[in-house]
Amino acid sequence: MLANLKDVLIPAEKGKYCVGHFNVVSLEMARGVLAAAEELKAPVILGIEEKQLDICPLDVFASFVVPMARKAEVPVVVHFDRGQTFNCCIEALRRGFTSVNLDCSRDTLENNKAKVAEMAKTAHAFGATVEAELGYTPSAAELEAGQAADYFTDPRQTADYVEATGADALAVSVGTAHGEYLTEPTLDYSRIRAIMEAADVPLVLHGGSGLTDSAIREAIKSGISKIDIFTDINIACCQGAIQAYNDGVHLQSEVSPYQVHAVKAVVEEKIHLFSNQ
Q: Mean pLDDT in each 10-residue stretch from start to end of the chain (277 residues)?
């Protein structure tokens, strides 16, 4: 069933568990995520980011993911992730997405607030939700360069930012990065706790792929209600195809089930971990 961020994240925040957000760029990846979510009876967030639209265009993504979400036996949020332009976020809403993230994290604080407030007003008119970003989550390369702390979310800005924007969830920068980690990142859990105390909305952690189980558990304990995953299932989908080839399979119609199974297995592990039990 279609849901929005408030539907799934408010219960997660209260229950001290986390909902997984999985970006997908193919039908096989989407099927694997939903198969795991339905088997484990867990809510899930399916998304795509604007930079991935050259792989899977927005209209194509919406044509298979939105109907799949409607038919699912569990709550499914269809989320437009890291949107770079207002117009693309609007197009996602028009195509049935139930949540959007307009990424203004590199803009000035005042511009960030103004743009996200406008986005929230528009999205709420669609019955959709908005994820905002305060603080910039860097790339893995930037993290390796030792620049991450320069971008961290300032807890002192949180309350005013949330009130000014009307955002329904807040993505924070606390030590993670986008992409494949070269070394294990160090998360600032005390910062997460300080932000949680100041914010009145569920908190989001970008760059969840590659984090250790213990890091994820501590992040959830500290106040994270949504964790974004892409690299882990992107790799799994490719490994499924490699396994099919090694098994002598050379037809896409026969490779596809391998990919679905590989993604499903990784997502099941994440859901168990995110349940924080």
A: 98 97 98 98 98 97 98 98 96 98 95 98 98 89 69 95 98 90 88 96 96 97 98 97 96 97 98 87
Tally of domains within the chain: 1
Active-site option among 7, 54, 59, 81: 81
Query: Could you identify the residue written with the tokens 């209209």?
Result: 59
| Strand-pair category, 129-134 with 169-172 | parallel
Does residue 228 contact residue 204 with C-beta atoms inside 8 Å? yes
CB atoms within 10 A of CB 109: 14
pTM: 0.96
The residue segments making up the domain with residue 211 are 2-274
CA–CA gap between residue 134 and residue 14 (Å, rounded)? 22
188 is catalytic: no
> What are the backbone angles phi and psi of residue 227, rounded to the nearest 5°?
-125, 130
